[in-house]
Amino acid sequence: MKEAELPEVVSRFFERDAERDIEGIVALFTGDATVTDERATHRGTDEIRAWQLGPASKYEYRTEIKGGEALGPGRYVVTGRLTGSFPGGSADLRWDFAVEGDLIARLVIAP
User: Fold this and answer.
1) Fewest CB within a 10 Å sphere: which of 70, 85, 90, 111?
2) What is the C-alpha to C-alpha distance for residues 67 and 26, in angstroms, rounded to an integer?
3) pLDDT for 40-58, tens place per residue?
């Protein structure tokens, strides 16, 4: 599956992230969405905003998307590499999205 075949909300997530558009990112999630990153789970848009303002903004980085695939209805996994000013300088990651309608209901970011 090419990146262009991902749902628009998933593509917009990476676009907003590249722009560091925190409010734009938060607007992509359902009100009760969860994000799991660095073994911590953030529930609801207030906690997702705090994650974006805190841990997700701690370092400068850029994301290179390697690929993406549909795992089932409303479920998509994107693989890529993060490079930046964090310890180690690069990380291969998977972004596992659950999409409901036009919004993200769940996102798990892990190696």
Assistant:
1) 111
2) 23
3) 999 999 999 999 999 788 8
